[in-house]
Design a protein that fits this description.
Elements lengths: L4 H15 L3 E9 L2 E7 L4 E7 L6 E5 L11 H10 L3 E6 L6 E9 L5 E9 L6 E5 L5 E4 L35 H9 L7 H8 L5 H12 L11 H20 L5 E4 L5 E5 L11 E4 L3 H21 L1 H28 L2 H13 L10 E5 L8 E5 L6 H44 L4 H13 L19 E4 L5 E4 L3 H11 L5 E5 L7 E4 L7 H13 L9 E7 L3 E2 L10 E2 L3 E5 L3 H7 L4
Length: 587
């Protein structure tokens, strides 16, 4: 975890410099793993985010405000009751542990001044936010831990708060570099230096340990017991420098990104270990760094958590349809034998005079083939030869009817499966609670979700996403299937140009021409937006079909978003997130 105890010490310093004395104005709980405190001072207001999410636990000031549920959770209401109006008095961190204690001066119901504490523990899947009273008793926690979950440390209301069990590691705030080197050399196996440092030092992440190894060995791989005297001296120098940086909390925020601008790592040290394979960016503050590193990933994670019920419904229906289609295709293969059934009937009818009742089988010449080979035909001894022939004819007609029905059913099931794939795609791109509400309304309308008896107010329809091409053409992109229908079939004009990824679920995209001839730049950028807002957004050379809106129509009874089109052409483009962000029109 990059957010180690040493990095957290820098966050602590940031909190102390900006927030000591700040008043708690509002409290939000966007989801079951995050809390947001709106703090107010005489000069500024700022939002403090605390997350206990397993893969992104952290605390920092944030510019992004997550959407909040209409009904606040119980813990949120408790904090509003006890902490609203309180002032942040102190921030504590035991050693370099991955935890901070935020102490607030508050007033109880009797008017007495008391000190309440919010403890955030950043420990992967064991991360938690714990509310503690003036006597050190737990008031409540984001994640309660009972005896079935842990036998070592319970986190339940009414119990005394205890620190997490300490690890057998050396803290740079309390131990010398000589002690660290001695511990390293006492490791029995010849371990890689970065792993040995990780096992020895408290509160430092793998990226810091790899950076120490990189600096010590000039990029070469090193093990503890094979280092030369010069390398040991270099390690001692860099450890002393690290110790001083951690003690003074005077490091600088750096983030490494890959060539596609995807965040890789962050640290309070300059990151040199990736060389030219990564770009290292310096930020103004540690909070700004964490905002940049986690904002996009957390937005996706929040929407994924909120859309779990929809995802479950779509997955269940899709699995059922897939199984149904496979069974029907297997039945269809059996229907391929229907011509053999008819041939058996014809051969029996042509040889009635040769067949006696009571036979279990008969061998007859197949006159449908030039060589007239003998064919062995199974008979029912109870039936007459003519009745056996009629039995085969009946089986033939039954198989032919079944084939016709199966082809229709498979086609309908496949169309429904394609529709569900499009809903999966729009669900993956849902960015707000409003997006989810519209998808839920669409699935209710289509009968996948049972309508609520207490008919709640339907969500107001959003406008399509709007973009402006580099040379001034408007480009509109649908957010979901119902909006796709409205955009293409009602709002767009016949001379506008319609774009959609070829055989890939995605948004309908309209290039508004206003009677002008669209430029090549506008056409290319519209196609790139259609590819970006589709399932192919992470691919390259995505095929996008385009045609005038007049050539697009909707079959009667088709699912939302499903259209047919003619007289189209195909262009291959590579989706570009930076282009989409640059062209987007913000209201």
């Amino acid at each position: 975890m990059a957010l180690d105890g040493a990095f957290l010490r820098h966050i602590k310093k940031e909190l102390e410099e900006r927030a000591i004395g700040a008043k708690v104005d509002k409290i939000y709980q966007p989801n079951r793993e995050e809390m947001v405190l709106l703090l107010r001072t005489r000069s500024e207001n700022f939002k403090l985010l605390m997350s206990a999410r397993a893969n992104s636990a952290r605390i920092h000031f944030t510019r992004f405000v997550p959407e909040n549920p209409k009904v606040p959770p119980m813990l949120c209401m408790l904090l509003r009751k006890r902490l609203s109006g309180a002032r942040l008095a102190a921030v504590h961190q035991p050693g370099l542990e991955r935890m901070l204690s935020l102490e607030f001066d508050a007033v109880n119901e009797l008017g007495d001044e008391i000190r309440l504490t919010l403890v955030i523990e950043i420990m992967g899947r064991y991360s938690n936010i714990i509310f503690v009273d003036e006597n050190g008793k737990i008031i409540d926690a984001l994640k309660r831990v009972d005896a079935e979950m842990s036998s070592e440390r319970l986190v339940l209301p009414g119990l005394t708060y205890r620190l997490p069990p300490a690890q057998d590691k050396l803290c740079l705030l309390e131990h010398s570099v000589e002690e660290v080197l001695a511990r390293l050399h006492s490791i029995p196996s010849d371990m890689e230096l970065s792993k040995a440092l990780l096992n020895t030092l408290q509160g430092v992440s793998p990226v810091v340990c790899r950076e120490l190894q990189h600096l010590t060995g000039h990029g070469a791989e090193l093990t503890v017991h094979t280092m030369s005297e010069t390398q040991v001296e270099r390690l001692s120098f860099f450890l002393n420098r690290l110790k001083q940086t951690v003690q003074n909390a005077d490091g600088q925020p750096y983030m490494a990104t890959d060539p596609r601008n995807k965040p890789i790592d962050f640290s309070f040290l300059n990151i040199e270990q990736y060389g030219r394979t990564a770009v290292v960016t310096h930020f103004e503050s540690f909070s700004e760094l964490l905002d940049a590193f986690y904002s996009e990933r957390d937005k996706i994670e929040r929407m994924r958590a909120r859309s779990q019920d929809l995802l479950h419904i779509l997955t269940t229906v899709s699995d059922r349809l897939s199984r149904k289609i496979n069974i029907q295709r297997a039945e269809l293969e059996h229907c391929a034998e229907r011509d053999t059934m008819r041939m058996y009937g014809d051969l029996i009818n042509a040889n009635l005079y040769r067949i006696e009742k009571g036979l279990s089988h008969v061998e007859l010449e197949n006159f449908y083939e030039d060589s007239q080979p003998l064919v062995k035909i199974k008979l029912d001894p109870v039936l007459t030869p003519a009745q056996n022939a009629q039995k085969y004819y009946k089986a033939y007609h039954k198989a032919r009817t079944a084939e016709e029905m199966l082809n229709v059913q498979i086609s309908q099931a496949q169309q429904e499966l394609d529709y569900l794939e499009s809903v999966f795609d729009e669900l993956s791109r849902a960015a707000t609670e409003q997006d989810l509400m519209e998808i839920r309304a669409e699935l209710t309308e289509q009968g996948y979700i049972r309508a609520q008896k207490d008919k709640r107010k339907q969500p107001n329809s959003q406008k399509p996403m709007e973009f402006r091409s580099s040379d001034g053409f408007r480009i509109l992109v649908g957010r979901n299937n119902r909006q796709n229908d409205r955009l293409t079939l009602k709002d767009a004009r016949n001379q506008d140009v319609w774009f959609h990824t070829k055989t890939i679920p995605g948004s309908h995209t309209i290039l508004v021409t206003d009677g002008r001839t669209p430029t090549e730049t506008a056409m290319t950028e519209a196609a790139m937006l259609a590819a970006f807002y589709s399932r192919g957004k992470d691919s390259s050379q995505v095929p996008v079909d385009y045609t005038q809106v007049r050539n697009v129509s909707k079959p009667q009874g088709a699912k939302p978003g499903m259209v047919i089109y003619v007289n189209y052409k195909t262009i291959y483009v590579t989706p570009d997130r930076a282009l989409a962000e640059r062209l987007k029109v913000t209201n």
